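Please complete every field before forwarding. Incomplete forms are returned to the sender.

SECTION A: IDENTIFIERS
Entry label: holo-874
Bound molecule: zinc ion
Molecule representation: SMILES string

SECTION B: INPUTS
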Amino acid sequence: MKVAVKQWHAVAYWKWDTGATTEQDANADEDAEDDVCGICRVSFEGCCPTCKMPGDDCPLIWGQCTHVFHMHCLLKWLNTASSKQQCPMDRRTWVTAERKVDR
Amino acid sequence: MADTNMIPRPATPPQPGANADLTTTWAYLLHGVDGIMTRLKDGVSYTKYMGLYTTAYNYCTSSRMHGGSLEAIGGTRTTGANLMGSDLYNSLQRYFRDHLQSIRGQTDSLHDETLLQKYAEEWNRYTVGANYVNRLFTYLNRHWVKREKDEGRKNVYTVYTLALVVWNEEMFKYIQAKNNKLANAILRLIERQRNGESINTGLIKQVVGSFVSLGLDEQDSNRSNLSVYESAFQTPFLLATENYYKAESEQFLAENTVSEYLKKAEARLKEEEDRVEMYLHSSTRKGLILKCEDVLIRAHAQKMWDDFQNLLDFDKDEDLQRMYALLARIPEGLEPLRKKFEDHVRKAGLAAVQKLVGSGGQEAADQVEPKAYVDALLEVHRRNQEVVNRSFKGEAGFVASLDKACRDFVNTNAATGSNAAKSPELLARHTDALLRKSNKMSEEADLEQALNEVMILFKYLEDKDVFQTFYSSKLSKRLIHSVSASDEAEASMISKLKEACGFEYTNKLQRMFTDMSLSKDLTDQFKQKQEQNHGEMEINFSILVLGTNFWPVQAPKIDFNIPADILSTYNRFQGFYQSKHSGRKLTWHWNLSRNELRANKMNPKYIFMTSSYQMSVLLQYNDNDSMTIDELVQATGIPKDQLEPVMNVLIKSKVLLSDEKDTYDYNPNYKNKKIRINLNMPVKTENKQDTSEVLKTVDDDRKFVIQATIVRVMKSRKTMKAQALIAEVTQIIAARFTPRIPDIKKAIDTLLEKEYIERADGTRDTFNYVA
Ligand SMILES: [Zn+2]
Ligand SMILES: [Zn+2]
Ligand SMILES: [Zn+2]
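SECTION C: PREDICTED COMPLEX
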């Protein structure tokens, strides 16, 4: 037949690479809790309550405890007295993890 | 003076000296005053007038001369002046009385118009004369009368007013005492005019004017009031009016249609307004018009209300206008019309949809065309909106009736049954058709007009969130498949929705457009980089990168085998994207991608426009002439159930052939008149699937909205009873949809479980917010 591809209009969607295996996440409808920021409960791909646009302007932050938050949400939390500089999910002292882009 | 009946004029007495007594003085003054009152047309010379004036003056001031030394009389000085003034005043009063008593008998034999003429004539003569006499006695007015009044004496008037008071007593009351002869004469004249005769309205104006002049304020005789006019004329006039129109309207309605009556009543009301203008006192207007409205409108309102439907049914526009204008004049007049109008519009709306659905039952209802449906609803709205504007002057109550009726039939009708989501869906589908390239709109203005019409119905939708979800689903498809009519039209529609429902409502929709433009930039940057590094690309590549949250599309979970032909482009883009946006990863919607393929060995070299699934199938035939379905599943990575519909389209278009079941062959003899062939047709079953998906999304969104609203309310109130909480949440959400109480209760349970809220100690229905 000999057809050649001349044009390709692709469609894709982006997510933050939170380290969770996405294929499983996609299956989970009800317990999609893992996909949302534990502070503001908005999904990672949305943005924190103070931002208007998701994306690079409202990035995520990873802790060594493996918890992930909107960066703005976490910094706001750490600025409060009650935070005691702890992760809001497990109360361990917050240490920002080095995030490797290439896996 | 040719009149032989006239009493011979007495000889003019000589002007009295400065200290003359009352008899001498009054003899001189009486002659002058009577001359002015009865023979003014003969004229009064300046000398004569000055003589009279001086005599009156001298007499009033003469007390000083009589009273001896000033010291001797001291405080009683004024008493002398009092006596002098009162002498003159009493004499004048006696004169006016004698004069009127001598002429009033002339009216005895007169009736109706001749009576009025005589009365007016005498009145004019009398008041003109009295005016002169009044000026003659200026000194008396300024000093004696003023002082008497200042000292609180009642029934003392300036000379002109005295003349009126005497006229009232001796002339007016004299005639009126005979069965209200004067007023009745006026009333009969007015009745003749109402019967269509032409009358001397100037005459009525004069007589009525005299009634007005005769009214004096009891407390302050310097001020006039309308007591005489009102009691002698206005009260019997209003009564006569009532009787006249009561009889007339009843008889007219017995012999004519309501429509004819409306014209009659309108004309009569106008006539009465004019009557006041022409010859009555303006204070009569209010009472007269109220009376007419009572007899002409209120008394027959029921008949008008009963005829209203008839006028609506036959589009009797002028009659409707008239009925509206008449009934608007009485406070309770319009409400029954508004109710009937509302019913009328509701019935019209329901009938229009019923006609569309026919007798086909549920099946026909399901298959109603969005455009036909929307057009039918709009037509009913348009027609009745016109009625409101034209016949009811856009009155707010009728606008409310129209809105109420439209809200009812737009949301629930023969096509929707009990499905509240149906109307939002049909309207959203219609809007989608308008905003597609295929919309057959030649002019941009037509499209804009059509979108404005969508908003008319949108305003009436109860479940606006259902519309929003359908709209967002349809918009995403228009954008992904590049079939949108124009960016301007899309933006225009979004701004209309935003204006109607606020920023929140269109936020996600607007973000889709942001993704579109970001993706365009991304594609350009990628292309530029590729050309720098690798020269011109073999494949013309473009990409749309979606932010998952705003796009109501899901990627099917399949393990798609990326064909070798596009693999290098794929890898390069992945790398490019990673370098631009670290921390993100892409998931590819192969089911939404599309391609163009060129068949190099065919003659002509056909261009096939395909989905990426079709592409991956067709590429297999570069190396094989025949493949089974299982081989194709293996080679493409597309599951069998999703691959079969793809194969069906390729067979139907004869690009592939299938002689044997589950075996597909390359068609070497493929021919088509066109060079560019679109194989990327949407699959038929899409609509139904869409609908159930959308409704599920709506359901999920609602759960979320209800929960979020409860949390927001509880956060600000801290403690609330269940009933109050449910009421407040319902009210907040009502703008988007009507929440069901069981759903709210369920949400409360969920939040109790998740410990956002807790039951207050020892209660079942009071909740506390958990911080
Ligand atoms: Zn957050
Ligand atoms: Zn942010
Ligand atoms: Zn943690």
